[in-house]
Specification:
Length: 285
């Protein structure tokens, strides 16, 4: 019996020793670092941008505008394409960079907001108020420096259910980061056709004005823009891998063939006209 007790006692000591050794090799700082790394990985896996090109958003989905009015998204979808962004107004980092980047593009862009397109921003935070949205809109409008464009700006807030519905439709995956006490998300803006179809994704913070122009022309079905824009769109096509427009070989061949036919037709017309004049001259003589 004494021998059994001795074996049990030694076993307990061994377990305690192993535990002490394990703890000694993982100090609190290491454990906290591992936990933080695991938490960060979990957050990152929940965010992203899925490109749902060709899908339509629900234009009957309702939000609250910056003046406190309940509005359906269809209010902003008439004859013009819409540029949309999902952010939140009290974001300490990425959202501010994203909106600042967009304003910088708008300031270099020849088309005014509200002229050929509407600008709609939706908060992903259901706790944010229309008063805050109004304040943010006023701040960015002042930075834009074109007060006459006010009617083209729309900063919205909404319920958690309606925000998630819109986010799922456009492919915007985000999550609440409890450790950092902020929303974790990516950066993208969306070009939608006048009937609410997702036409183009501007990924990241910086947008080239020329690319923005082409995306709006395409979303408007060539009802805005110049002949040069339309010619470019004949040769270009959106490349989801490159996240921008790229030359599309088939369209380029078609465009080149069309130009050659026009040139050939022009010279044939001149030739036939000259021959017709020569025949007329011979008949009169």
């Amino acid at each position: 019996m004494l021998e059994i007790k001795r074996i049990i006692f030694m076993g307990v000591l061994s377990v305690l020793a192993c535990s002490a050794f394990a703890i000694g090799n993982n100090n609190p700082k290491d454990l906290n670092s591992q936990a933080a790394s695991y938490h960060q990985e979990m957050v990152v896996n929940k965010i992203g941008i899925d490109q749902n090109l060709g899908d339509k958003i629900d234009l009957n989905n309702t939000f609250t505008d910056e003046l406190g009015n309940q509005v359906a998204l269809k209010k902003y979808f008439n004859e013009k394409p819409v540029m949309m962004a999902l952010v939140y107004y009290e974001c300490p980092t990425l959202c501010s960079l994203h909106l600042n980047g967009m304003i910088d593009t708008f300031k270099r862009f020849e088309w005014d907001i509200g002229d050929k397109f509407e600008f709609v921003v939706v908060s992903i935070d259901p706790q944010e108020s229309s008063k805050l949205a109004e304040k943010k809109l006023a701040s960015y409008l002042e930075e834009y420096g074109r007060p006459q464009t006010r009617d083209g700006w729309h900063f919205l807030t909404g319920s958690e259910e309606n925000i998630k519905k819109l986010a799922n439709e456009v492919g915007f995956r985000y999550t609440w980061n409890a450790r950092e006490k902020q929303w974790a998300h990516g950066a993208a803006s969306y070009i939608l056709t006048p009937d609410g179809e997702l036409s183009y994704y501007h990924m990241g913070i910086q947008i080239q004005p020329r690319v923005l122009r082409l995306s709006l022309v395409e979303a408007a079905d060539n009802k805005i823009g110049s002949l040069v824009d339309q010619a470019l769109l004949m040769c270009l096509q959106y490349d989801p891998d490159k996240k921008t427009y790229a030359f599309y070989a088939l369209n380029l061949v078609r465009f080149g063939g069309g130009v050659m036919l026009l040139v050939l037709g022009f010279f044939l017309f001149r030739f036939w006209r000259k021959e017709s004049k020569n025949n007329t001259t011979k008949q009169t003589t």
